[in-house]
Q: What sequence folds into this?
């Protein structure tokens, strides 16, 4: 499985951005998918996750109400719509996929596949 992330960029505080993730290869191995982010000098933190069917989503407290995760299984894509962006949202955003049906969605050790990361910068 290969994950390719795209989108991101530079935006002013209060603005919106969308990052996308495209999966290829043995995509039937992927059940849950997620976004993590890593700011300079910090750990890679959980942002949002979505189950295989797309019927359940999970968010970190810091983005809840502002970000929306979605997936299109027919196209093997996953998106993260980010609204009301804040400077503290600045980070490299990574998409991740897991073949595990259970486990903790926010635990990065649960994820087998990772994209290369895309930069999101929010200016104040």
A:
């Amino acid at each position: 499985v290969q994950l390719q992330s795209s989108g991101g960029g530079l935006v002013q505080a209060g603005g919106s951005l969308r990052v996308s993730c495209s999966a290829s290869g043995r995509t039937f191995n992927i059940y849950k998918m997620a976004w993590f982010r890593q700011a300079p000098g910090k750990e890679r933190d959980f942002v949002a996750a979505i189950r295989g069917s797309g019927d359940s989503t999970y968010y970190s407290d810091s983005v809840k109400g502002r970000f929306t995760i979605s997936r299109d299984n027919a196209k093997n894509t996953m998106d993260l719509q980010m609204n009301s962006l804040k400077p503290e949202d600045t980070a490299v955003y990574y998409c991740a996929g897991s073949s595990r049906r259970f486990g903790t969605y926010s635990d990065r050790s649960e994820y087998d596949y990772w994209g290369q990361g895309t930069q999101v910068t929010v200016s104040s």
